[in-house]
Amino acid sequence: MAAFSKCIPHNCYEIGHTWNPSCTISTLQVTAGALEVSFKIYAPLYLIAAILRRRKKDYYMKRLLPEILQSTSFLTANGGLYIAFFCILRRLLGGFYSWSAGFGAALPASYISILIERKSRRGLLTIYMANLATETVFRMAVTRGIVKPIKHGEVLLFCLTASLYMFFFRCKDGLKGFAFSALKFIVGKEEIPTHSFLAEQAYARAPERPASEAQPEPSEGTPSEGTQASRRSSIAAFTRRLLESLCKCGPRHRCCKHYHDNCISYCIKGFIRMFSVGYLIQCFLKVPSAFRQVFTKPSRLVSLLYNKENFQLGAFLGSFVSIYKGTSCFLRWVRNLDDELHALIAGFLAGISMFFYRSTSISMYLFSKLVETMYFKGIEAGRFPYFSEADTIIYAISTAICFQAAVMEVQNLRPSYWKFLLRLTKGRFALMNRRALDSFGTGASRDFKDFIPKLDPRYATQPPELPVQLG
């Protein structure tokens, strides 16, 4: 454990901005780089979002550019203000403490920058950073031997989260907004317990048409063409009737709302549908990276379609839906009623599907959203207090925790976020003199063993390769 009250007497040039001895110039360089990267991130992001949401022309003319610039300013300020407070704290404290280089400098920088961002986006940013900070703190605790990791813990967490999510989904006014719409899309409206008896009438099978209407009109052409066309139509009609009979002429409990299918075909159709959705989503996510090489290496296109991750995500989503629906139908048959409590069991068992696509990020994010949902439900019930600035404070603390890890123990930070910090600072975050920070006992230079900054001796108090004594 790092000594909290000990400090090293280096200046900010020797520890932080090793590429330039000037604090002002270094801050401007980081800010300029962050501005360029931020605009490249948010410009296409907002443009694609506007196209998908089918925004009107007025949005593109009046609101698109201001929103892009506002989010760009937020991310730029987060990077630029960090290095500024890094230098300010060094001057105020006379040295570096184990908390000041990371957490101390990032806390005010993050708080000020989040105030620049639009209020509608603060909640999403807070959830993401709180999720990331929680994962980082857990890794720190594991490294220090405070806690022991549970085997397949992300799957267990997802099972518990899915269980509660599906319970709220089944309850009246349990979920609202995007969460409700997303789960309705995934598991289908048949699992919403708001269907009345009238719904069964709406889903009742349509009266069959008379044979005279069902028969197609004879087409013009040679007899052989007409015979082939009639054969193809008869085969298609036979296949359609066979599938309909398999779907409808099977067991379906009176409480089940899937009126067009029996319970078995209902589960199979759910698997096929969401498997296709997951497969296509993963394919589209890999298109930008593969598109750059498709002209030089056409084989990349084939590997894109048969990538293992595509099938893993498809199997994850497909099995989640089929297990949930199958368990719900089974419980309706066993208990002879439809109960919201069934969702607790069905959701937990469906969570086992994460073995196909294990992801700590997904589990942590959904758990964070679940905590947020339960907290706001507690506020509505009058059991929890409401803090108007909670999102900004949580964002600032969470970001400061992640910056602390990025400076003092990058091995405990999520690799994707570390790559993002390197991109935002144009690689300057990796130029910190972490060998000097090793004296705090966190293994700051573990992933930077071969890096020694080339410092100008006129501005350095001691050579960077010498061991550092704590003050």
Class of secondary structure makeup? mainly alpha
Task: Give the radius of gyration.
Answer: 29 Å
What's the arrangement of strands in the largest beta sheet?
Answer: 1-2
**Low-confidence runs (pLDDT<50, min 5 residues)?**
195-219, 467-471
Please, how many helices?
Answer: 19
Q: What is the chain-wise order of helices and strands?
A: EHHHHEHHHHHHHHHHHHHHH
Portion in strands? under 5%
Helical content stands at: 55-70%
Notable traits:
471 residues, mainly alpha, 2 strands, elongated, 65% helix
Description:
Helix 5 (100-116) packs antiparallel against helix 17 (390-408). This protein has 19 helices and 2 strands. Mean pLDDT is 83; it is low at 195-219 and 467-471. It is elongated, with a radius of gyration of 29 Å. It has 471 residues and is mostly helical. A two-stranded antiparallel ribbon has the order 1-2.
